[in-house]
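In response to a reviewer's request, we include the raw inputs and outputs for one of the modeled complexes. The two entities were modeled together in a single run.
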Amino acid sequence: GQNIDQPTEMTATEGAIVQINCTYQTSGFNGLFWYQQHAGEAPTFLSYNVLDGLEEKGRFSSFLSRSKGYSYLLLKELQMKDSASYLCASMDSNYQLIWGAGTKLIIKP
Amino acid sequence: DADVTQTPRNRITKTGKRIMLECSQTKGHDRMYWYRQDPGLGLRLIYYSFDVKDINKGEISDGYSVSRQAQAKFSLSLESAIPNQTALYFCATSDLKRDTGELFFGEGSRLTVL
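The model returned the following structure tokens for the whole complex.
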């Protein structure tokens, strides 16, 4: 079956670094997405990885290992506004997104 | 103004009532989707459409129907609402021409079925 696993909740301190992990099992693979979702709002796109390695975009970086079915999202210099849920999604062979339940990130001062 | 607009944003209804959620977009995208989101679960795809003449069922289409009235409009109907259809519903679009397949979401429609 198809499955995406990510931690339910994480807590980090303002100014610190946090890594949110995601493991995936999908029928085929056409890329791994990370979205950010603030409470009560729509998800917004953060990153897309289809090749192995690290993609850096400002304070946010995303890593992919296709052989391990593993990705992580790295957030640096955490700010209070980074408090949100982070959704991992894998695109399968039919180009459909399979979503994880999301990781709620709590930032403490 | 939002590029992907959903109406209504909030709706409370009773079991057995017919409900329509509407979505319109100004992004010019061909692909449109309806998802539902429940606490503790990932987004689940209800229906999707790659153009006006193309409608496809997602993983949880039972109890729902859709209509793609135009490239810019995609509506979701619950013919006879039931309490376990209480959820947050999102419409989304994507551009066939973009390699990443990035989704652009509407602001969501919160539906409560009593």
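As requested, we also summarize the result in words. The mean pLDDT of chain A is 94. The interface with chain B takes residues 4, 8, 30-31, 33, 35, 40-45, 48, 87, 89, 91, 95-102 of chain A (CB under 8 Å).
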